[in-house]
Amino acid sequence: MYDISGYKITSEPVILGIESSCDETACAILRGRKLLSNCIISSASEQAKYGGVVPEIASRIHTEAVGKVTQDALREAGLAPSDIDAVAVTYGAGLLGALLVGLSFAKGFAYALNIPLIGVSHIRGHLAAAYLDDPSLKPPYVTLLASGGHTAILHTKSYTQFEVLAKTLDDAAGEAMDKCARVLGLPYPGGPHIQRAAQGGTACIKFPSAQVKHGTGTAFSYSGLKTAVINYCHNLSQKGLPVPVADVAASFQKAAIDPLVDNTVRMALKSGVSTVTAGGGVIANAYLRQRLREECAKADLKLVLPEVKFCTDNAAMIASEGLNKYLSGDFAPMDINAAAQVELK
Q1: Does the global pTM surpass 0.85?
Q2: Cis omega (within 30 of 0) on the bond before 55?
Q3: Cα–Cα distance for residue pair 135/64, rounded to 1 Å
Q4: What is the pLDDT of residue 2?
Q5: What is the CA radius of gyration of the chain?
Q6: Which of 18, 49, 241, 257 is most buried (most C-beta within 10 Å)?
């Protein structure tokens, strides 16, 4: 924890958040839990030409966009830089070059204004997106985290502490979606196109469930499911038969998502909490959102589900987690470095 003695601390701070971990350059501003602005400049269309994110292109566009997106956020919020009480920025996980652009800009902004710098884990940002949907949300609750880099069920015990109840042993759900989309000839990013294709199909193909036993508990594995999809498509192609893209997408989606939803509800009931939240890019999936609503309603659990725009990469979630760290006095030194990977903790 960094020395905060030189800063003026307020109970309802104005937090400026910056996100640049992948292909979105984003800036958002919160006053307490109230969102004042949320701006994004994306390089996704440029990256789609190459079938995935090219780090050099991402870093270059971040460099060009970070100043503009910050000005846009300040203008939308009707604030001047001097109104900001702290700067929260993603330091990891992500592409190192991309992270360094946002981190360097945030350091300069905080240093120039003599305000605290807050380093935010991208994972924690996804978890804090729930507060954007329900500012009155208070722990404890159970969270489903599903993104391109992480998949886990967490028991959130306080604003700063959680326990991992179950997690993937290999690939993350979002990573598996991207790989399966590529096999099916669907564009990048894979998640939205898997969802769109699945809407025209039926889950009639028996793929292995993502749920596996791990010791005496439950875990998830997406490598076997991904391989099963690849083999299914390859075998049809070898026989000169067409691949039923819609049915494959629907069947993969069901095998990937149902275990996440079912175990989240089961673990929430076992933990004795009354609320379930969710975060991460995969939570934007319409089938997952529908299943969460249905199963939480059956179990009489309150569901706090962030809007789709707060599930994909954005700076509002970074500012939201920044507020949690600000209120606990957890500030970063100016020599904080970017990290390509961060632990789930």
Answers
A1: yes
A2: no
A3: 33
A4: 47
A5: 20
A6: 18
> What domains are there in the chain, each with its CATH number?
14-128+314-327 (3.30.420.40), 139-308 (3.30.420.40)
Whether the per-residue pLDDT at 193 is higher than 70: the answer is: yes
The closest alpha carbon to 7, from 331, 335, 323, belongs to 331
Q: How far is CA 60 from CA 25, 63, 336, in A?
A: 11, 5, 22
CA distance 66 to 133: 26
Q: Tokens 């760290």 identify what position?
A: 325
DSSP state of 209: P
Task: Give the position of tokens 């949320």.
Answer: 38
Residue type, 11: S
Q: How many helices (H) and strands (E) does the chain have?
A: 11, 12
Q: Using CA atoms, how far apart are residues 243 and 45, in angstroms rounded to an integer?
A: 27
Structure-token pair, residue 151: 């998949």
pLDDT confidence of residue 11: 80
Closest by Cα among 151, 88, 100, 78 to 330? 88
| CA contacts within 13 A on the Cβ side of 48 | 12
Summarize pLDDT for 127-167 with one digit per residue, the tens: 999 999 999 999 999 999 999 889 999 999 999 999 999 99
Residues in the chain: 345
User: Token pair of 13, please?
Assistant: 């701070």
Rounded to the nearest 10 degrees, what angle do helices 223-238 and 173-183 cross at? Answer: 10
DSSP sequence for 67-120: HHHHHHHHHHHT--GGG--EEEEEEESS-HHHHHHHHHHHHHHHHHHT--EEEE
Are the C-beta atoms of residues 13 and 85 closer than 8 Å to each other? yes
β-bridge mates for residue 39, sequence order:
27
